[in-house]
Every structure is written in structure tokens, then in C-alpha cells.
Please model this.
Amino acid sequence: MIANFFSKTKPATIFSIVALLFVYFFTVTFLLYSKELSIQFLIKRISFFIFIALLLLIVNFVVKKNKLTKDNSYALLLMVFLLGTFPEAMFSSNIILANLALMLGFRKIYSLRSGVDTKLKLFDACFWIGVATLLYSWSIFFVLLVYVGIIIHQKLTVKNLFIPIVGFLTPMLIYFTYCLYFEDAAFFYVKFGYGINLDFSPYTSLKLFIPLIFLSIVLLWGLLKVTPKVLSVRNNFKFSWEVLINHLLISATIVAVAPTKNGSELFFVIFPSAVIIANLMHHIKSKIIKNMILYAFLLVSVTVYFL
Model:
């Protein structure tokens, strides 16, 4: 059964997840972009795939290193199911690269729990968020997550309040200097076009509405079932869970204001959603229900291509 196979993290499970990503990615490529097929187009798509596969490996490292889930591969599997469900998320270069940079920042935020090299982690986290902001301007919201991590992990000092600002401004200054010297300052300012789109009508289409409703229901189930159990015990995971919930809220805010609403913006909620649902899977004792959840995600990810 699928739940039993992915209940442990092994090379075979990681390989299977990357292979599943490959199937989703190139199925969408040939279904939606068949008229654009060329050698140059395929090279570009293969590059996209490599970046997403690299992102998955970083996610696996972040989850295991910071013990965001138990020793299973559910989070990675759910991420791939969600990428398959929202295929546009796999084909926006700016969003993919922004999330790759953000993941390098998230690994520092979640590792604040260790109390080691706190100042360096705060600088690194905001440095990568700064890079992500240059790629996708609304990524700036994740600076808030750094300060949430500082408060939750009780690292609140005057220096720790200013270090993230320095970290965030560093890539900005580097890029501004580059633009000023090689291009024009206008290339820098255009990166901060904060267009807001509050038209949610694209989400009424069945291919987005059905999976979003399903994801929301399972997410709510996970939050209601896991949160009381986690908060009743004072340990490091309790703090990580609080950061994770704030991570989801900030990601949902970015999706809400995103200027383009075609499904690609949902990339931002995939990581926190997958981790929360993976924890729900751990707290469910029935193997039948675990399998039903995973098969439901698989079914939804396939069904959207026929809607």
C-alpha cells in the first residue's frame, strides 16, 4: 500500500518521488505545450525540472534536519501531488527560482530552534529572502516569518532585530550597484512593482476550485487534529509548529494578493501545506485512512487534467 511504502525515508522512496515528479512534469509539458515543442523549448523545460528536483532535495533536508515530520516521506510525496494538481506552478521560472531561494532561507528560520549561530542564521535567512524578493516582489512578506521565528524561539535582542534588515538589504545593494554600473537604475526599481489582484474569479474554474476545496478541508483537519496535541507538550517541535502555521498564513496572504492568478502562485503554499498534512498522517493510526488520503490526492491530481 502507498502509505506503508512512504512511511520511511529511503533512497527508493526518494527515487520514486522524483520519478513521479518527472511523470507529472513532462505529461503537462506534452499536453499543454505540444505546439511549442522544440529542442530549445525542451532544454528550458529540463532546466525547470532540475530546479524543482533540487528544491525537493532541499525540502527533504530542511524537514529531516529540523524534524518537522517524523521519519517518513509523506511531505515530499504530498508536495509532488500538489505540484501535479497545480501544474502552472511548475512552469513559472520566477516563482520556481524565488521558492528555491526562499527554501534556503526557511532552513535557517526553522533551525533557530537549535540556538546555534543565531545571528548568522538571521542574516542568511533574510539574505535569501532578499534574493527571492528580486525574483518575485511579494516574497518580501517572508521577512515577517524571520521575526516570528525570533519571537517564538525567544531570540529577541536589539542586535537580532537589526541583523535581518542588514541581511535583506545586502542583495538589494549588490543588485542596485550592478544595475547602476552595467544597466540602468530603472532595472532595479522595476523589481518592486507591487501589483495587487484581488479578483478571485479564476479560482471558480473547476480545475482550481475542486483541488483548492479539497486541500483546504484536509489542511483544516490537520490543523484541528494536530495543533492541540502539539501545543499541549512543551518541546522544540511546538515552536516549529507555531512557525509553520505562521508560514502558511504568510504564504496564503501572498497568494491572495498575487497579481497573476493562474495557479502558479499556489507554489508558495505547497511546502507548509505538505508538512502540515504529513503530520496529520502521522497522527492517524488507521492505515486505511492514510491510504485513502494519499489516493485522494493522487486522484485529484489526475482529475484536474480532464476538467
In short: DSSP finds 13 helices and no strands in the chain.
